[in-house]
Design a protein that fits this description.
The protein is of the alpha/beta class. The protein has one domain: Response regulator (Rossmann fold). Helix content is 44%, strand content 18%. It has five helices and five strands. It has a five-stranded parallel β-sheet, with helices on both faces. Helix 1 links the parallel strand 1 and strand 2. Helix 1 packs across helix 5 and helix 2 runs parallel beside helix 3. The radius of gyration is 14 Å and the shape is globular. The protein starts with 7 loop residues before the first strand and ends with a helix.
Length: 130
């Protein structure tokens, strides 16, 4: 279909291999993907593009973690759906993904996961966002 705008997704993760894999899967599924290596870059890019349709954020990132990033994105774009992802790392005993939901993430996913699982969450988030 010509003239159809692609849904724009911000993807932030400090692991380049994760970003490359997920960005490729999202792009192949027809989304426009804006990537960021940490929360500070994610917020900066979000403002530069004047927001988007969805944000997918890793929680454990340097410079600005995903929880701080959720708060800033919510300030800029209160209605944007956010998917939080985390492998837990050394904080596995804490409920980081639960905290992300309390701060405004509508869906969460625990690493590792298959790209198909994330694509299903993206579809769900975008359908329920509007």
């Amino acid at each position: 279909m010509t003239g159809t705008l692609k849904r724009r997704i911000l993807l932030a993760d400090d692991q380049p291999d994760v970003v490359r894999l997920l960005a490729a899967a999202l792009t192949e599924a027809g989304y426009e993907v804006i990537t960021a290596a940490d929360g500070a870059e994610a917020v900066r890019r979000w403002r530069e593009i004047n927001g988007g349709d969805l944000a997918i954020l890793d929680i454990l990132m340097p410079s600005k973690d995903g929880l701080e990033t959720i708060i800033e994105l919510r300030t800029h774009s209160p209605g944007v759906p956010i998917i939080a992802m985390s492998g837990g790392g050394s904080n596995d005993r804490l409920d980081i993904l639960g905290d992300a939901k309390m701060l405004g993430a509508i869906l969460t996913i625990r690493k590792p996961f298959h790209s198909e699982e994330l694509l299903a969450l993206v579809t769900e988030a975008l359908l329920n966002a509007y």
